[in-house]
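In this supplementary section we document a worked example of the pipeline. Step one takes a protein sequence of length 429 as its only input; no multiple sequence alignment statistics are reported here. Step two produces a three-dimensional model, which step three serialises into structure tokens for compact storage. The input and output of this example are shown verbatim.
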Amino acid sequence: MRPESRALELIDFIDESPSPWHAVASAEARLLAQGYTRLEEGDRWKLEAGGRHYVVRGASMVAFMLGRAPLADAGFRIIGAHTDSPGLRLKPKPALAGEGIMRLAVEVYGGPILATFADRDLGLAGRIVLRSGSNHVTRLVRFDRPLLRLPNLAIHMNREVNEQGLKFNKQTELVLTLGLLKEGGDAAARFQRLISDAAGADAADILSFDLAAYDMQKGCLWGAEEEFIADGQLDNLASTHAALSALIGTGEPDATCVAAFFDHEEVGSESATGAGGSFIVDMLSRIGFHAGLDDEDKRRAISKSFFISADMAHAYNPNYPSAYEPGHKVMVNGGPVIKTNVNQRYASDAESAARFMRCCETAGVPFQQYAHRSDLGCGSTIGPTVAAQLGIPSVDVGSPMWAMHSARESAGVLDHAYMIAALKAAFGS
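The serialised model returned by step three reads:
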């Protein structure tokens, strides 16, 4: 498949996925189309050789394909990514009214570049939990139209904005404008009707919700020869899509292949659905159980496994040359990036890096290496967290991108195809 086609597939995937819950639903639709079947954690499983299945826990998913070779001999090939992105999430009682304007209160989720959310057409998406008899049900909702806005303050009232930068007080200046409200109007009731209509339910049946603002602008290719991708949530839905595409494109591997997509990476991964929870351990244990592994063979399987943490990497921006470590200026469209940090902010070591290099060579794609400036704080990934839980040799990799955590990020068309090819080679290794 041509790199441009891969990039357009990625854009479609992101545009279908304005929240982590939508991202899981988008992945699920693609897996079902390829013959994967859904398993429920509360059911007893029946797994057979060659089976292709997936499990959903909240906004996280583990999909797997059972290999041809005995699990104790071939082990697992695991690729992990995350479904969440930094942004603005609604508070449980968000509706505010004053001066005839209805607004919604938000919390900052993770570490977004807040200035990039100003003066953009924002939609609203996520999940709503509804009463259903003596139980409750969850429905995905999406306002696929400009619904919210964060209006900037005019330069006439903020004369130093270009010198000092655009800054927001997170409590008082990030409240999103929703609409006008007539005198005596009930902002809370109006908001409740708005989201209940989107869910196709009665307002009285709404129990709770998880809703996030998202940028309405569709993704696109850009550049003199359309060699770049622009979209929101490239960090890290690009890695999620690459791992998903690699899994779907893998035929009948010897090793058991696993693609794990976690929520809450942007806020530390410590949750029931995050990489710091039990999800991946539970899934591997159940797969091992159905493969008939005893305690000895479980450890044999783990010793022969390999884990790739796929999360985006910082591409060199020539406007800010002093932000980068000399010798480690990775380039957009230069190939997958192997990320290293001696303080274990990334899980890579010399052996795991070399193993991923061989995957790139097998796939016929270039690779790059990245280290952060020593005088700047280094971000982290799910890599060290999962590596510590599983005791599996692990490497941190990612496609290079600009403007990470902006509402509008950029990456390379070639890099997405390169990453899919490298991850597919890893599944077949």
